[in-house]
Amino acid sequence: MSQIIVTNERIINASPSEVYAVLSDYNQRQQFLPENFHNYTVEKGGHGAGTVVQYRLHAAQRERDYRLGVEEVIKGRVIRERDFGSSFVITWTLSPENGGSRTRVGVASEWTGGSGVGGFFERTFAPMGLRNIYDNVLDLLNARLTGEEKPALKTRLSKDLYIPLLAAGVIIGFLISRRRTK
Questions:
Q1: Looking at the domain assignment, is residue 65 inside a domain?
Q2: Tens digits of per-residue pLDDT, 36-62?
Q3: Mean confidence (pLDDT) of the chain
Q4: Which residue blocks in 24-161 are alpha helix, DSSP H?
Q5: Where does the sequence pass through the membrane (predicted)?
Q6: Alpha carbons 71 and 10: distance in angstroms, whole number
Q7: Closest C-alpha among 124, 120, 109, 115 to residue 164
Q8: Is 173 within a domain?
Q9: Which of 19, 99, 149, 178 gets the highest tally of CB atoms within 10 A of its CB?
């Protein structure tokens, strides 16, 4: 088993305090969640530390329920959302840019991956799917804060698909060579 870490980052044309106010208001979080998030509910609190939320995340062909507790690691700068039922953790980090008129918003998702063949595929493909989901979250957060239209989805073919395509090619080549030797 190994740690899987997926990171995303975006610069948003709003101050860190504006971004933090929206990001830490879990009662309004649905306004910038894409369609991958289902049955989002605030179970406890609703603003900042001590909040408990739950939702069902649909990614690729899988769905999973999450129930997360919120921690304010550094008030105004770092929010951590920790799943009660697994090792899954999401950390939001805000850094001022351009003298504080803009904010670099980072989101890192981390969990302990499976082992064996299933773990290999999880380490290979899950980061791509989750990165795309959080690209959408960051686009929607930007639109919520600035009123700017949601940017077009980014294509990352050359960077993000290189390793998975290479891995798929190696596996297919291995399977073909095994078939020929039988």
A1: yes
A2: 999 999 999 999 999 999 999 988 777
A3: 82
A4: 116-146, 157-160
A5: 161-177
A6: 22
A7: 124
A8: no
A9: 19
